[in-house]
Amino acid sequence: MKLKKILMLGFVVGMMSCSCSTSVDYCPVTASDNDLVFPALAQSWDEGIPLGNATVGALVWEKDTALRFSLDRTDLWDLRPVDSLSGDNYRFAWVKEHIRMRDYRPVQKKFDEPYNRMPAPSKIPGAALEFPLTELGKPVQVRLYLDNALCEAIWENGTRMQTFVHATKPVGWFVFKNLTTELEPLLVTPQYKKTGNSSEASPVSGQDLQRLGDEQGSVVRKGNECVYHQKGYGDFSYDVVVKWKRQGKTLYGTWSVTSSLCGEQAKEETEAAMLRGLEKDYAVHLDYWKNYWAQSSVALPDSILQKQYYNEMYKFGSAARENSYPISLQAVWTADNGKLPPWKGDYHHDLNTQLSYWPAYAGNHLSEGLGYLNTLWNQRDTYKRYTRQYFETEGMNVPGVCTLTGEPMGGWIQYAMSQTAGAWLAQHFYLHWKYSADKEFLKERAYPFLKDVAIYMEQNSIVDSKGVRRLEFSSSPEIYDNSLQAWFKDMTNYDLSLMHFLFDAGAEMANELGIRAEAEHWSKLRSQLPDFDLYSDGSLTFAKGFPYNASHRHFSHALAIHPLGIIDWSDGEKAQHIIRATLKRMSDYGPDYWTGYTYSWFANMQARAFNGEEAAKALRTFAECFCLKNTFHANGDQSGSGKSKFTYRPFTLEGNFAFASGIHEMLLQSHTGVIRVFPAIPSTWKNASFNNLRAMGGFLVSAALKDGKIVRLEVYSEKGGHLAVFSPFEHKVMEYETQPGSRIDLVVK
Question: 4-78+122-295 has which CATH code?
Answer without folding.
Answer: 2.70.98.50
